[in-house]
Amino acid sequence: MKPVPPATSLRRAPVQRRSAERLTRILDACADLLDEVGYDALSTRAVALRAGVPIGSVYRFFGNKRQMADALAQRNLERFTERVTERLRKAAGEGGWRTAMDAVLDEYLAMKRTAPGFSLVDFGNQIPVGARHAEPNHRVADRLTDLLSGYIDREPDEDLRRTFLIAVETADTLVHLAFRVAPEGDEKIIEEAREMLRAYLSRVLD
Length: 206
Description:
By secondary structure, the protein is mainly alpha-helical. It has nine helices and no strands. α1 packs across α4, α4 packs across α5 and α5 runs antiparallel to α9.
């Protein structure tokens, strides 16, 4: 079962397994409908119908569709963290920050290509469509600082956080450009992004 968002993104946290499974179905339905109809046409009623739950079950967790999209973004971040962690576990410390950077970028690209609703929501910075707020990238940078500091043997201080924030902002902008140019992401733009990140991080982390 996919991870459930923490209680801070919900009106009420699920307690029983059945309630958690219902929340998962609601978020899965939300993600599918985002791909099919977009955010503007998304409705809590349509999500309830797709999830096969009463509309009251949706409102038990979410006051509106924005809160539902926020919870989906949080779940995406948790899933992304799990995928990067697993990649680094398999790497067993080999490759230093270069291996870590490839894991972060590759898993982000994989989710962008395959995860339902991710192209609109990702980690929360595009809802409403076209809005570009700084908070989600700060959240991602914080998560990467906590996750990667031990792997690259660096103190998780403000300098490292700033480094990751700059890298995240750069990657975010260039990956979005790549997916505007080609539906699956323009490979030449993605490789340019990878080289830019390597050049920047080598100056800071080597």
